[in-house]
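Database export, one record per block. Field names are fixed; values are copied verbatim from the stored entry.
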Amino acid sequence: MAALALAALVLVIGAGALPDADTLAVIDNTLRHEGPAPRSAPPLARELLARPLDALDAPAIFDRVVPRPVMEAAATPAAQPPLPFERLLAAYVEEMLRARDELLVATGNAPLDEAALVAELNANGHPSADRLLQLAAATDRDGLAVANERFIAATTRFARALRAAADLPQATRFETAIGTVVIGSPGSDRHGPGAALIIDPGGDDVYERAPATRGAISVVIDLGGNDTYNGADVAVRAFSAIVDFSGDDRYEMSGPGLGAAMAGASLLLDLAGNDSYRVPQLGEGVAAFGIGALLDLGGNDRYELDAWGQGFGLAGGLGLLWDAAGDDRYSARGPADAFDRGGGLSGAQGAGMGPRALIAGGVGVLRDDAGNDEYVAEMFAQGTGYYYGIGLLWDRGGDDHYQAVRYAQGTGVHEAIGVLRDEGGNDRYELSFGVGQGMGLDLAVGALVDTAGNDQYRARVLAQATATANGVGILADRDGANRWEIAEGERQWGHAQWLRGMPSVGVLLYDPAHATFVHAGQPIAAPPPPRKESEPEADSTCPPGVKVEVDEIRRVRREHFDALFGLGQRLRCAVGDPQQAEALWQALAEDLARDPASALGGWIAIALRANTPPAALRTTILERLDAHPQCSVRALALIAAPRADVARRALGSTCFHLQAAALRALKELGAPPPADAALPSFLR
């Protein structure tokens, strides 16, 4: 992938220059100096964070993350000569036995309680962070990819060959090496769960599905009719598939399913008809450590979901919803948000998410190739990545309507990538709050690209090519008469504030001859030029009575992000209490001695800035903070206690964050920086 596409937009529009290489390298530079990527992070996530402009290339992202057998499942196959059914089945059974062996070997690195995981999915709608860590420990991702791709390729090939088989038996069942095979009649049949393979030649059939676990194979191939699918068919360390060739079908799950997999693969391939899909939570293209794919190749379809699906990737997983044609409607709601931010947690419509500081997100993709489509969701949706996840919504044509609340429509949050790309039609983008439409939050990349049509953008605040906390937000729409509307605030249209002494980046690319801008209900001639200003520092006031026990300092771990954050907040206040201060400072010095890479390092520096330790400990604590392996901790220590000699040495670092802190320290001390300091362009 290359950044040439965005550079070309700038040349065509003449709307200004791109940020330079140093500015675009802030995310990569910061993350490289903080340590390795978290467990199970997609390699592409770090690549895109290092080259933010490549996030605009949706086709290249799609090609990188979607395996070839899935691509081939959506393609029109060449005509095949008819083969005897027994020969086709024997070959398929042999392939399934091989794929199952590969699956069990690849997922057998640690004990895995599949029944407990299924129960958790039914109860909570998603796997817990602890369960994702168990899956990570159990899984050889490379070996699992081989097994999953073999299953998908063989199932697609076998299903298509069945249509040409001249001697397909009817209304029978028999046993094979992979389990029971059931063949239905041309009439309307009812099929229960339990068979490894069901083949039905026609009729309006009803299928009751059940979860597949422990290496099971659960495949339905329906050759015709208006069919109904009920139950739940998530695959947990197993393989699941539905291939339906024609008819207006209803997929109405009462539990997780319809292309949902955990440590396995699940494929739903519907080739024709006006279909409806409904899953309460976790479905319609979702996976952790595996592949969950829903491919619909024709018809006007309806996709309904409460949360977690429609192209949703958890750790180690690819969740894909790919609709090839028709006027479609996608809707997702979500469980209540504990932070009361105005909507539910959808996790849908191209979203890759992971529990922060525990394990990385996966890859979630929603691709729609044609038609006038409607997308409705609440939060974390429509091209959103969270904590090393990649979320992509790629719509290739039609007059489309996107509606959400916040964290949507091309938003990256906390070292993640979120992309929405629309390639045609007169489109409407609406956020009832904001934080989206090309927005990067905290070392993340968010991009919205619309390549054609007369489009409308509406949000309340913090949207439309902006960023916070050293993120990158891009909105590119160079064609058509477009309307850009923001209800309040000043962070939009290329304006992004600085943090950590480094820039955030907002890039708005538009045609000034055909654009209309509205701010707070009033038309304006053009966006005001971005200003250089810093985000306000957090409130440092302390409520009375904050307590921290010494044992809490000894027990906390880096991976327990919420507990660590809560302790750090209280610690800053508690060390200001004379009755607690001496014991806490002593415990903090011991913590740094015990673990030079202490997870509390940054919070210790923040506490030291607000409060002075006992003289006997201050020098010791500062020396240990200055030697901390994380650049951010060393920078916070230098800000907390400006020292000219330490600052001058820090200017020789390759870490932008530390260099920025050094300049700040020298300025506070009234000491000029060395004239020959090698600084990034934005600090010169």
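Remark 1: The first strand starts at residue 172 and ends at 176.
Remark 2: Confidence is low (pLDDT under 50) at residues 1-16.
End of record.
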